[in-house]
Amino acid sequence: MTTHADARADARAVVAAYERLAELAEAELAACEAERPEDLADLYAAAAAIRASLPGRAPAEAAPALRRAAAAQARIGELLGARLAERGNDLERVHRAREAARAYATTANARATA
């Protein structure tokens, strides 16, 4: 028979799981900021195990933890988007440099054969 105290303890355990998810999201953000992708697999595995144990609907008491996790995930998205744009710019510079080198090589080759 479940007592009122047991139900409160269960509710606290569920909220603690959401708080742990927020901590993991914040750790994921820290790993992304520090460019430590090797840390991500363990964080993802821990989060997946917690998510598998959660109820279908979060209790209202979990809202602060969910907001923390959502804020961390939003920041991760912004960070990765900015890094992707940087890499795109890097690739564009490499492409332009390669085209310039090809043009120089073509000109040099034409001069050498003339």
Structure keywords:
3 helices, mainly alpha, 114 residues
3D architecture notes:
The chain is mainly α and 114 residues long. It contains three helices and no strands. The chain is 83% helix and 0% strand. Helix 1 runs antiparallel to helix 2 (40-53) and helix 1 (4-33) runs parallel beside helix 3 (63-113). The radius of gyration is 25 Å and the shape is rod-shaped. The model has no long low-confidence stretch (mean pLDDT 88).
**Relative helix content:** over 70%
User: Total strand count, please?
Assistant: 0
Task: Please give the largest β-sheet.
Answer: none
Order of helices and strands: HHH
Number of helices: 3
Distance from first to last alpha carbon? 98 Å
Rg over C-alpha atoms, rounded to the nearest angstrom: 25 Å
Q: Mean pLDDT across all residues, rounded? A: 88
Backbone shape: rod-shaped
Write a brief structural summary:
The chain is mainly α and 114 residues long. It is built from three helices and no strands.
